Amino acid sequence: MIALLKLGGGLLLLIVANIALGSIRAAMAREWDTKTFVNGLIKGGIVIGAFAAVYFAGWLNPDLVVVEMDGQTVNLAQGVYIVLLIGFTYYAGKVLLKLKEIVTAKSAAVVSEDAQSKQVSGQSETAALSTEGAKSKVEADNNG
Asked: How far is CA 130 from the centre of its chain?
């Protein structure tokens, strides 16, 4: 249960860092938009709330079987861990890409160009890593 709390706390920090870095990147590129910022805050709040709801559902009913595929069962606690792990991996990828763009940019204009070209490829790579990591975690939990 402590691992879930740490993962959830880390996810919260990554969401906040993602919003902050996106704001800094937009300001550097002189593309700041209050509406986009507010939408990001709302989305971050909804994602955090949804993850919290899923976590507490798993905490209240940890032994319920959620899915059984190919002879492998996943209970609610494992499912919650997988969902948090996928979210953590997704936001970690976004934060690392934004940090790299900001650190390696020679000017504010480069930040804007790099963000547009690399965001699409980075998101697909992160999604692939999330899926593989979650699958490995379930297999390890069921075998061990």
From this structure: 9
